[in-house]
Amino acid sequence: MTKIHVTDASGAKHIVEAPNGDSLMSALLNAGIEGILADCGGGCACATCHCYIEGDGMDLVGEVNAIENVMLDSAATERRDNSRLSCQIDVSDALDGLQVTVAENA
């Protein structure tokens, strides 16, 4: 299991253990993390799983694809340089220790 350090929308901190191969969104939903709505169920069509990847984590999670880029531009929450949609990040051993902050009104 990969351990992800999460700050939820209310500022509470959690450690989420996620199986490799799951999306980060699924792991956050399964852990009951506040602020992850995932209205589209992980289809990269709503941006309600918006999060911020902290520290050097952006180097680990891969590039933003074209569809995700459009969705981040239209997100209800502030887009930052470290913005990602958690539905587009696959959990792997490389993400162990990743620090994620859920966007406040995702």
Give a quick account of the main beta sheet: strands, pairing sense, barrel closure: 5 strands, mixed
Low-confidence stretches: none
**Which CATH architecture would you pick?**
Roll
The number of strands is 5
* Biggest sheet strand line-up: 2-1-5-3-4
Q: What best-fitting shape do the alpha-carbon axes yield?
A: globular
Indicate how many domains the architecture comprises: 1
What can you see in these coordinates?
The longest helix has 8 residues, at 66-73. This protein has one domain (2-63, 87-102): Beta-grasp domain (Ubiquitin-like (UB roll)). It is 14% helix and 22% strand. The mean pLDDT is 95. The chain starts with a strand and ends with a strand. The protein has helices spanning 24-30, 66-73; strands spanning 2-7, 13-18, 50-53, 83-85, 99-102. By secondary structure, the chain is of the alpha+beta class. It is globular, with a radius of gyration of 12 Å. It has two helices and five strands; from the N terminus they run ββαβαββ. A five-stranded mixed sheet has the order 2-1-5-3-4.
Question: In terms of topology, how is this protein built?
Answer:
Layout: E1 2-7, E2 13-18, H1 24-30, E3 50-53, H2 66-73, E4 83-85, E5 99-102
Parallel strand pairs: 1-5
Antiparallel strand pairs: 1-2, 3-4, 3-5
